[in-house]
Specification:
Length: 110
């Protein structure tokens, strides 16, 4: 019993396969079992495709963040006066904190 069969074949198919008593080193020639193995392999390939797809999406997001951070780092390293840049960052952080703290709150009109 290999991992492909154990993980991706229905239990009933595994029981039927085991009842056939085919040695591990003998090729499987039974039509039902061949189709079951092909379906299991298709599931594995689909699962691996999904993993690669999510990994590429994760890598894309990490790359965007990396470019943003290194862009800001470059500005800090190359500017003569970074005061304006720091003030803008501080203002953005304060604005976001106020927005988060007051989200959903309603104030009566003056």
């Amino acid at each position: 019993e290999d991992n492909l069969m154990r993980l991706f074949m229905p239990e009933s198919t595994l029981k039927m396969f085991n009842s056939l008593g085919i040695p591990d080193d003998e090729p499987i020639t039974h039509g039902i079992m061949t189709k079951a193995i092909e379906r299991a392999q298709t599931k594995v390939e689909s699962n691996n495709y999904g993993i690669r797809k999510h990994l590429l999406e994760y890598d894309r997001i990490m790359n965007e963040q990396r470019e943003l951070i290194y862009g800001e780092r470059y500005k800090v390293l190359t500017q003569d006066n970074i005061r304006e840049n720091i003030m803008n960052m501080t203002r953005d952080v304060i604005d976001q904190a106020v927005e988060n703290a007051t989200a959903g709150l309603e104030y009566p009109e003056d």
